[in-house]
Amino acid sequence: MKQAKWLLLVAVGIAMVLPGCKKLGDRVNVANTVDDKLVVPILAAESIPVGNINVWNDDDYVYISYVMRTAAEQADQWYLKECYADIELLPRNFPVQKGSGEPDTSRFAYKSGDISRCREYTFTIPVGNWTGSVCAATRSVVCQLSDAVPPVEINGSVGWAGPYPLNRKTSATYFEYTFGDVSGEWHWVNAWAGTEAGQRAFPGDDAATYITHTIGATTNEELYAGQTQCGTVTVTDNVVRGKGKIFVTYHTASSWYAKSCAVEIALEASGIPQVDGNPQPSQFRYKSGALDPYVQEYTITMTFKSGVPAVVIAAHAEAGQSY
User: Where in 10-152 does DSSP place strands (E)?
Assistant: First the structure.
């Protein structure tokens, strides 16, 4: 029996079901990437839908994510207590108990340990030399919570995902997964110039920040995609007696590129075009338009006529990396 020998590097509780996710259908499920996940229902006690297994990969890792259904999807909420996963080339390679044929999850390659009352959990597994299609078995120990204060765990059950029985002796199931080819794919995110801690942040929910520039000075700010620094932005000017130009120059980090840049200037942050407190780059007056090819340095020039000593600048970029 050949077991997967991969090393579990990371186990984190993050996952999201995207609107464009692929549902399990044909035996071969292709193009499974972060934007096109394979979604397999988790059935507790063989028939109760309690959540989904989301699977996708990049060049280095395959991600197996356990996500319980939301309150909007199901009134009776379920919680994860333990997660197990094993990946094999053939279903007969899954470890089973002698005689009974039941899966031996103690010998599954990936185990969460006790994660009582968790709603989401993800295994991050090195791809190694695997290509093409593999078989994946995922076991979930789940429960519900009582209305008592404090609540106690009730209705404990076991859930499996997939349409194919592991063998004729068990109700445990597995599914097939085909690695998506993501080489050369670009992944784009919103990037804003400002402070990581967000001291100069807009009031909306987006992680958008702004720059305060003093006329006659040079201002350097870091460019952040979420919490990841992806470059810097430098602001300079040639303003004399309240008239001149202000220059905003983007420099992306070595593996990052920009496919568009947009800048707006105002006397206060409230003067930047916003919707529900979130700045709107599409409404900014100074925009690069689509940059083709993508760039690692770009300057936007703004005309300035005012006698104020300082201004607020919102500098946005669509920043991305190729995988």
Answer: 10-12, 22-23, 38-44, 48-57, 61-68, 79-88, 110-111, 120-126, 133-145
Tell me the β-bridge partners of 137: 86
Phi-psi map region of 132: left, alpha, beta (phi>0 left; psi -120 to 50 alpha): left
pLDDT of amino acid 83:
97
Rounded Cα distance between 241 and 248, Å, is 20
- pTM of this prediction? 0.51
In the numeric block, which tokens belong to residue 220?
Answer: 């350097």
Taking Cα atoms as reference points, which of 58, 129, 38, 49 lies closest to residue 89?
A: 129
**How do residues 35-60 score in pLDDT, each as one tens digit?**
778 999 999 999 999 999 999 988 78
Tokens of 299: 């300057």
Tokens found for residue 255: 């593996």
Q: How far is residue 196's CA from residue 147's CA, in Å, rounded to a whole number?
A: 41
Rounded CA separation 123/311 (Å): 46
pLDDT at residue 198 in the model: 61
Closest by CA to 121, choosing from 24, 26, 214, 42, is 42
How far apart CA 144 and CA 122 sit, in angstroms, is: 20
CA distances for 130 relative to 6, 30, 125, 218, 313, angstroms: 10, 14, 11, 51, 48
Residue recorded with tokens 């130009």: 245
38-44 vs 22-23, strand pairing mode: parallel
Give me the pLDDT at residue 322, please.
Answer: 72
Which tokens is 63 given?
A: 């991600």
CA 213 to chain CA mean position, Å = 33
pLDDT tens sequence across 145-175 = 998 998 899 999 999 999 999 988 999 999 9
Low-confidence ranges of the chain (pLDDT < 70): 1-33, 181-185, 196-198, 323
- Three-class SS state of 122: strand
Tell me which amino acid residue 38 is. L
- Separation CA 294–CA 252 (nearest Å): 11
